[in-house]
Structures are given as structure tokens and as C-alpha cells.
Amino acid sequence: MKKILPPLIALAFASPAAAQSIVVVTAPQTDSQVLPVAYAELKAGENQAAVDKLTGESTLDKRDPSRLINLGTAYARLGRTAEAAAAYDAAIGSPIRYDVELASGRYVDSRWAARMALANLEQGRPLLALAR
Questions:
Q1: Fewer CB near the last or first residue (10 Å), C or N of the chain?
Q2: Distance (Å, whole) CA 53 – CA 57
Q3: Nearest by Cα to 48 from 11, 70, 75
Q4: What are the residue ranges of helices labelled H in 29-109?
């Protein structure tokens, strides 16, 4: 726990965007393909554009946890907390599961990332980290 706490504290105070979001970059890809999970939009603070991209037509499965976590983050940033919670819940219950990349470059289980995002949303705390 002592090894994890300082980096999380540093990320929480790094910037306003970093303090408010868990954003998924992608899952490990053998072919170096980047998933279309609206990372650039979220990083730029273009939250409505991220919602539009994540709810529109995509080659990515609608149940994909990366898509759902980032959708929840975009909704949370827009103040749409009920929709954010629903997206995080869907990521937790998704039959698709893998490790997702966070801002630190660390990979964590997609359900863990979604649970932490939901818990922090419900408690009004900043979410863990902005992904790169």
C-alpha cells in the first residue's frame, strides 16, 4: 500500500483533468493497434466529443470495458453522474475482461479500474488517473 499511495496522490494533484478521471488508453495489443476509445478527446477536455465518439458507430464492441470506462469518465466530467455510474457498472459486468493501460503506463484489470472509478464517483472523490 505504501508503494501505491504516493503515485496516486501525485496523480490526483497533477492537474484538474488528471484529478478527475480514470481514462483508458487501450488494452495490450499484439499488433500495436490503438483502440478507438476517445482518449485524445478526453485528454483535450472535449468530453461531449468523447461521448459522441464512444456512443456512435465503431468497430469496438459496445460491451468493451475500455469504451465503457471512458464513456463513464466523459459523462462524469459533464455532470451526468447517473449515466457515468451506468457505464462503469456495465464495464464491471461486461463479459469482456482484460488489463487496461492507465496514465502511469501501468496495466490494471478492467473490472478493477471500473470499480475504482465507480466508487470514487459515488463518494465524490477524484478518480485515479488520466491515461496517456
A1: N
A2: 8
A3: 75
A4: 39-43, 47-55, 65-77, 81-93
Q: Closest Cα to residue 87, out of 110, 65, 120?
A: 65
What is the CATH code of the structural domain delimited by 36-132? 1.25.40.10
Helices 81-93 and 110-122, axial angle in degrees (round to 10): 150
For 81-129, what is each residue's pLDDT tens digit?
999 999 999 999 999 999 988 766 788 999 999 998 899 899 887 665 4
Q: What's the pTM value of the predicted model, to 2 decimals? A: 0.74
Query: Do β-strands 99-101 and 107-109 pair in parallel, antiparallel, or remain unpaired?
Result: antiparallel
Length, in residues, of the chain:
132
